[in-house]
Amino acid sequence: MNNQTGISKLNYHPASSAKIALVRTITQVILIICTIALLLISAIAFFNGIVMSGEGGMKLIIFSIVFMASATYSLWSKVGRICDSYLAQIQPLIITSGGAIFPFATILQLKGRRWRRWEELTNAFVYWNDGPDFDDSDALVLTFKDGSSTRIALKTMLHQDIEKLLVALEMWAPPSAISENFVELRGYLSQALQKQGLKSYTALWNDELSRRFSLATFRPLPAGTKLQNRRFEITSQLGFGGFSAVYNAVNSRGEQVVIKELAIKQLDSEAVKASLLEHMNRETALLAKIQHPQVCRLLDTFVENDRHYIVLEKIPGSTLRQVVIDNGPMREAEVKALALQMAEILSYLHSQQPPLVHRDFTPDNLIIRSNKFLALVDFNAAMEFLAGATGTIIGRHHYMPPEQIQGKAVVASDYYSMAGTIYFLLTGRDPRPLTQLDVRAEGIPISGNLNHLLLALTSSDINERPNVQQIISVLQSA
Fold this sequence. Notes:
43% helix; Phosphorylase Kinase, domain 1; four-stranded antiparallel β-sheet; alpha+beta
């Protein structure tokens, strides 16, 4: 990746040697010549059939028409492959910090717009069989806000270029668009390139992350790190920012867990450190008391090397975001059923003393199990206080009400986020930040009572938002 210009050209065509490519091209040309010759023979046979009379002439005409049709299709296919191959080489996939320019061959898939800004990306999903070699089904599928998408076959790219593209997407694309298996594939490619003695662009990714979070010297733990005398082993990183990180891990019994890490040692003020520790201990004690089948459980807390860790239950299933990405927007009846579960979960959390505000109630933090039951994950224990101490905003901005952006999250803030989640399930799109939601005005046919509920829940005035009993009443109505 060119650090001076921020521009990189990727070879988005079969990764084969020049000699093999030349042989393939010559073979294709020979086949084209043979196909043209057969096409001419068929044309001559067609005219001879017209001249001939009787049953023999008719058979010759039918035979020649069938043969000409198949030969024409074959010729078109072979010419198309050669053109696509050369167009891909003439027009490589170009990535920059602002967006990407895709090869000319993708122009129809992208509705005539080859240049795409990263902000337009709604989903980047990797289909990968976890094997050492890529096959025809392994691909990176990119979907954009206008509904267009393009499929990049991993088999047709060099490992270096695939890694470079993944790094670019993780650096510059919206975090909500990136699929969970990016980290695994990038780690596999990085190891493969290092074994071959080639440069790994994961180093550039780490440099970029360091630049983003330069206010702290915190560095996340690499995969394979053992914690608590080997009680836990980090398997992959889910994400990090500022002074915290989240990991997938396994315990000594081989069970999967989620570990959240907080490195308060990086804070300069001793008073802030002491207050943060007090706040974190108070909130984790509250989380430990939660006993609800649809809320992830706090399993453990510990301190190691001046870093504080929270161990949470790993809940199997797919996030609501991934379900919508895979299957499209949901029907209103299905959305209402899920929204009722959301309201009941929030009712339980807000009934705690003091009320427990989740602050990040989004499609990414709601897991749907195989039995259609929702589960809420990713509690930001002690993060709200850290936000006040460092100026960091907690939550995804598409789902955050004005008061939360100002650092004053309350119970009604979770209801605002819930409305944004309902909107996503109905439309397949993230809501516009700080916008009162009117789904009917966007041409989506939903009942008036649900539309009115979303309008009320996304009011900028906290006092105008319904309480949980009113929300449940509307959702249960016909």
